[in-house]
Amino acid sequence: MGTLTDVVGVGASTPADGYVGDVFRHELTRIPGLQLVNFSCSGATTTTVLHGGGYTFTTGSQLGDAEQFLQAHRGQVALLTIDIGADNIDGCFSLSGIDASYVTTGEGHVATELPQIMSGLRNAYSGLRTYGMNYYDRTWRRGCSAREARRSPRSR
After folding, report:
1. pLDDT band at 3, cuts 50/70/90?
2. What are the structural domain ranges in the chain?
3. Is the model more confident about 117 or about 53?
4. Beta carbons of 87 and 45 less than 8 angstroms apart
5. Is residue 4 predicted with pLDDT exceeding 80?
6. Among 115, 136, 128, residue whose Cα is nearest residue 42
7. Mean pLDDT score of the chain, rounded to an integer?
8. By the 8 A CB rule, do 26 and 55 touch?
């Protein structure tokens, strides 16, 4: 296996200041010289990862570009991060309550599309170490306890 030089990010995250960036900075302390290759997009859903939408990708989708990169860099990628699923139901919340049908539809998309995404990534680079997340709350990054996070204004 070659030198592990890359962290690849897929899913919903801001380029440098989100889940992918936080995992990258953590792993950089263990793997000097690590580089970040980030295909993630803020607001991505499982549907947009599979089929594109909102962002321009060489292959037409976030998944396609990530798969292409992984296939071209076998033996060089240290880990993959994926943060996806929360934006599938994010629009269901409003001041008047929760739209249960929106939640059901969003959960249905995650249940059918997430296995397709993971299968595509695994087929592109089998055995790759993967960090997965469905809703990232930066409170956890700061190392607070679960009890403190529940009381945090960001988690209400």
Report:
1. very low
2. 6-155
3. 117
4. yes
5. no
6. 136
7. 78
8. no
The answer on pLDDT for 91 being more than 90 is no
For the entire predicted model, the pTM comes to 0.77
Whether the CB-CB separation of 73 and 39 falls below 8 Å is answered with: no
Answer whether 152's CB lies under 8 Å from 145's CB: no
Apex 5 CA angle, 64 and 37, nearest 5:
35
β-pairing, 130-133 with 77-83?
A: parallel
Please name every residue paired with 131 in a beta bridge, in sequence order, or none if there are none: 81
Q: How far apart are CA 156 and CA 132, in angstroms?
A: 22
SS (H, E, C) the chain: CCCCCEEEEEECCCCCCCHHHHHHHHHHCCCCCCEEEECCCCCCCHHHHHHCCCCCCCCCCHHHHHHHHHHHCCCCEEEEEEECCHHHCHHHEECCEECHHHHHHHHHHHHHHHHHHHHHHHHHCCCCCEEEECCCCHHHHCCCCHHHHHHCHHHC
